[in-house]
User: Fold Pyridoxamine 5'-phosphate oxidase-like protein from Thermomonospora umbrina.
Amino acid sequence: MNQAGGSGGASLGRKLEEIDRDECLRLIAPGGVGRVAFDDGEGPTVIPVNYAVEGESVVFRTATEGRLNQSLSTVMAEAEVRIAFEVDAFDETDREGWSVLVRGGAHRMSEEEGADAAGVTPWPAGAREAYIRLSARSVSGRRVRRE
Assistant:
């Protein structure tokens, strides 16, 4: 038995495959919850966010006093901060699923851009007035499924 309590052959009949850019964008297009990875000045950190997809960009909202917005506020106007964004979906019973990673430059959107942005409704209470756009430079994904 392995540490997960199953047999070592539990993955037989499943394959890991790369997902192309178009399929990755299709998988994350409905929006929902993903995770943003960035350096907050104290080192790498990851936070969950509600998001929407606009073309090849990911848009999300955060609190103006939040770590991510503060990190973006420290750069020069028009500059972008490199971040990563990840979304996945898994079926633990069937041991299948996918994961998509988007990397690129993020910037705080202007009030006008935010007003025109796709509707992103944060789950937690409180103001989430800062709109962030991640322009995808790299989009990759992997899927595990039965053969």
